[in-house]
Structure to design on (500 residues):
């Protein structure tokens, strides 16, 4: 009993002692209120309690005095922090603007970066409160809502530059009462890494256009080719491309013509390229559409067959066995090796490409065998189909729609596809089961890309490359206008989500 009484009494006394200790409220003031560079500033510690003082003046200098003095060598805006008794709970900070006798351009960053916002501020010493007007001057590379025709009247503003590896001059003309001042400051704009859209054009050139939160850069030409060229996708540092020396429609080329088609790897770090596969056959056996999935490239030729190639392959040659296509190099499937044969699929029908969703293949057709034919690996037959072979359980969708090209959004479960309309194509979207089809755009070229990282569909119409927000609802109602990206009439598009 006595021990319990003592413990209780000590606890009460400890509570009373702690409760009687005053709380510490760090605080300070300084004079003069508008200090200038080279002028001594006196700091007055207004903290009610404490024994140890830690001052951080925001320019890399410190003090442990209770009431220190400080001289800033350069004008600018500094954050002064006082910490009492080395306790992170007893900390206070104030921003102090240090002026110069002349107006001064203060930039709140150590490094100006391409397409990255930064703030400029006019530091104007005006102790007599005279009328002040500002006129900033910027080059045409400066971008801000507050800059009109290269000028702004604000005392401070945020901006960014849309060119890099350039030295930019910022001017500031100030009127303080009747006195006029002109000051300048130069900044170097550094390059910045960004996600990039890679595109090929009708002349066989490869282009890159990086994307930033504040805008998009002007496309840069990376290489040129005399051959037809289109991109497949990016894996790691490698951009995969297809080239062909046949420019015309392969289905219209004479039977005795042999052309060369190659699948190439282009190293985005070294700008060197290498060959994965060479096809020297009639152009109908060249790569028509290709997609990158996991560690393999899947492609369709211009009519009857599908193939698969591991991306680790180098310097391989395509071998064609016309008598038994299943023995051919990298053979995956053919129209007569599926239960759809003579039940929608037939030989000689034009193909719109191949894609995978989970374990299901989607094969697009246009011409007489329209639609998307779905099947799994188990549906691919070891020998040609017969009249009694059942149709794959996955089934065919969009069977009344000719599909020249398509892309899939596996996250939102959408299919974006191009269907012929006159001399061009219409761009449509539907749900993964083919329902609720909705038209997005007219006069489109056969190039598009779905990117979930930027939440955009990139496509090409008569005006050039455009982007529109991905569809997320079941109804697929168009609620946003497309944004123009570039004037290039691209023949192929892929997006690399790694910043380079």
């Amino acid at each position: 009993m006595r021990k319990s009484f003592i413990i209780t009494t000590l606890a009460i006394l400890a509570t009373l002692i702690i409760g009687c200790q005053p709380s510490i409220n760090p605080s300070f003031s300084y004079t003069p209120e508008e200090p200038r560079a080279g002028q001594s500033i006196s700091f007055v510690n207004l903290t009610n309690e404490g024994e140890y003082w830690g001052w951080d003046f925001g320019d890399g200098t410190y003090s442990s005095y209770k009431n220190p003095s400080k001289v800033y060598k350069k004008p600018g805006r500094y954050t002064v922090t006082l910490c009492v008794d080395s306790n992170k709970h007893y900390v206070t900070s104030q921003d102090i603007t240090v002026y110069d006798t002349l107006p001064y351009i203060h930039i709140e960053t150590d490094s100006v970066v391409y397409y990255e916002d930064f703030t400029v501020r006019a530091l104007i010493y005006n102790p007599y409160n005279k009328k002040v007007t500002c006129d900033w001057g910027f080059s045409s590379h400066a971008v801000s809502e507050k800059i009109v025709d290269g000028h702004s009247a604000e005392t401070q503003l945020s901006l960014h530059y849309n060119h890099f590896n350039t030295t930019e001059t910022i001017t500031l003309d100030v009127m303080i009462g009747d006195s006029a001042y002109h000051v300048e400051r130069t900044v170097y704009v550094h390059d910045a890494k960004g996600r990039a859209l890679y595109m090929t054009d009708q002349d066989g050139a490869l282009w890159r256009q990086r994307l930033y939160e504040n805008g998009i850069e002007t496309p840069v030409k990376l290489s040129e080719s005399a051959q037809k060229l289109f991109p497949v996708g990016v894996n790691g540092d490698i951009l995969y491309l297809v080239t062909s020396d046949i420019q015309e429609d392969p289905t219209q080329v004479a039977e005795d013509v042999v052309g060369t088609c190659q699948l190439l790897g282009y190293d985005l770090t070294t700008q060197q390229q290498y060959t994965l596969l060479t096809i020297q056959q009639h152009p109908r056996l060249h790569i028509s559409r290709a997609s990158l999935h996991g560690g393999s490239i899947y492609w369709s030729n211009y009519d009857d067959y599908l193939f698969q190639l591991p991306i680790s392959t180098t310097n391989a040659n395509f071998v064609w066995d016309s008598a038994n296509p299943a023995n051919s190099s990298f053979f995956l499937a053919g129209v007569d090796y599926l239960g759809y044969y003579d039940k929608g699929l037939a030989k000689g029908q034009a193909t719109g490409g191949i894609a995978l969703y989970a374990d299901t293949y989607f094969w697009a057709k246009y011409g007489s065998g329209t639609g998307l034919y779905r099947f799994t690996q188990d549906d691919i037959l070891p020998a040609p189909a017969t009249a009694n072979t059942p149709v794959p359980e996955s089934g065919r969708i969009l069977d009344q729609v000719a599909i020249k090209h398509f892309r899939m959004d596996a996250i939102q479960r959408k299919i974006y596809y191009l269907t012929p309309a006159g001399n061009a194509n219409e761009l449509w979207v539907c749900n993964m089961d083919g329902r609720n089809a909705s038209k997005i755009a007219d006069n489109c070229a056969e190039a598009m890309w779905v990117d979930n990282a930027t939440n955009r569909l990139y496509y090409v119409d008569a005006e050039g490359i455009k982007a529109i927000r991905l569809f997320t609802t079941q109804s697929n109602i168009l609620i946003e206008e497309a944004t123009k990206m570039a004037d290039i009439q691209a023949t192929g598009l892929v997006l690399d989500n790694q910043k380079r």
Notes: The domain at 195-496 is CATH 2.120.10.30 (Neuraminidase). The chain has a mean pLDDT of 93. The first strand starts at residue 28 and ends at 31.
